[in-house]
Amino acid sequence: MTDSLIYMVAGLGNPGKEYSKTRHNMGFIVLEELARRYNLAFNKSRFDADIAKGSIEKKQTVLVKPQSYMNRSGFPIQQISSYFKIEHNNIIIVHDEIDLPFGRIMIVKDRGHGGHNGIRSIIDILGTKNFIRIRVGVGRPDKKNDGDKVVGHVLSSFTSDEQKEVDSLVKRAADASVLILSQDVQIAMNSFN
User: Collapsing DSSP states into helix, strand and coil, what is residue 110?
Assistant: First the structure.
């Protein structure tokens, strides 16, 4: 990793106030924490995304919140990575993950979408899975894999018990992003997985 490279950290979510505090918007929530920490502002809208640019741990970084809805996240990610000439392996995607218990974080690279529509869109549009993902556990509604229950779960707000832990979870996911940028993905995996 050299300092002349540009990195992207993209958080997945859905635009609109009705989704702002839902599990599915965990990516947006983590990106807002990163922007706050490094005094970066989402003051540009381009390629159907809100963008903040600046330095995170001496790495030129573009923070991206796609505004295209989850299942079309790949289009803004591809356009922005092309515009800024960001290599695919320097893209970090932060997203909610129902296949992890609430509060767990797992960093992966070069993995399939696992049923996540935002990740599916990014893989389809980029034509590769060679990017880094920070999977932020939001848990499943129950043991049944009922599609309606899953959709209702990810689009719902956190329970009062979960709400007490959300800030800590968001901070840890932001820490994971910073560790990837400041050290490397393997060190971050060893620390968080």
Answer: coil
Alpha-carbon distance of 96 to 24, in angstroms, equals 6
Q: Are 93 and 74 in contact (CB under 8 A)?
A: no
Domain 6-192 fold is Rossmann fold (3.40.50)
CB 73 within 8 A of CB 116: no
- The first and second tokens of residue 166, run together, are 């959300």
Instruction: Give pLDDT tens digits along the chain (193 positions).
Output: 345 689 999 999 999 888 888 888 999 999 999 999 999 999 999 999 999 999 999 999 999 999 998 999 999 999 999 999 999 999 999 999 989 999 999 999 999 999 899 999 999 999 999 999 999 999 877 655 555 566 666 777 777 888 889 999 999 999 999 999 999 999 999 999 9
Write down the H helix ranges in 38-158.
74-83, 117-126, 147-154
Catalytic residues: 24
pTM, to two decimals: 0.92
